[in-house]
Amino acid sequence: MAEIDFWREYIFFPERDLWWWPEDYGLKYKEVWFRTSDRIRLYGWWIPKGTHALLFAHGNGGNISYRVDIAAKFSKHGLSVFLFDYRGYGKSEGDPTEQGTYQDAEAALRYLRTKLKIPLSRIVPVGESMGGAIVIELCTHYDFPAAVLISPGVSLARIMSHLYPRHKLRNKFAGIYDSTEKISKVRSPMMIIHGDADELVPFGHGKELFRKAKTSKVFYRVRGAGHNDIYEVGGDRFYRSITEFVDLHCRKEA
Length: 254
Known about the structure:
Elements: H1 2-10, E1 13-14, E2 30-35, E3 41-47, E4 53-57, E5 61-62, H2 68-76, E6 80-84, H3 98-115, E7 123-128, H4 130-139, E8 147-150, H5 156-163, E9 190-195, H6 203-212, E10 217-222, H7 230-253
Parallel strand pairs: 1-5, 4-6, 4-7, 7-8, 8-9, 9-10
Antiparallel strand pairs: 2-3, 3-6
Helix pairs in contact: 3-4
């Protein structure tokens, strides 16, 4: 229980209730249940649209219902979206841990490939905040046509040191969601997006990950955007830029 309390107090802030649904945005969708390699039952929404599928790994708060509006915008731009909840979030079973979230993302990818028969060449993982570290981990095992990181952190220890500068937290969070070395192992073309007014995960995190990435890469600065309003501040150009990036690299793989 002590380990679970640690994760819940400092890292994961899940909600069980689903407040918004795809039909609220006029989206056609399928409710999905699937299992991880350690037999945890997860829940998600498959929102079909175009031939390219975004595997969306959300941040550490809420659940998939908080990202339906984002999925609706991507759908408007012709992209299919798979929203899934990590263990302990929404309807998904279990309790969240770092390694558990990595297994969850891999299980979601496996569902797309085996159940929906979508080839890897048409799947693009998108990681939001904490989900950025999860996507980076996934990309060290698979070569996708493209990958997108939105407001990613270099490591949790660095983020916590920024948020609580007077507390010696670096050792407590050492190694957790640490992408410092992993980012250089990613071979998928990468788009990194960060708001230059991000108050939670500083803009410099996105820039540092961009510098360390050795693959083909693009950096997109959203001027005036914080951590939680980057989608609104970025507006239609934000979604259009991601769609163009995905289209470009998925066409190369076709």
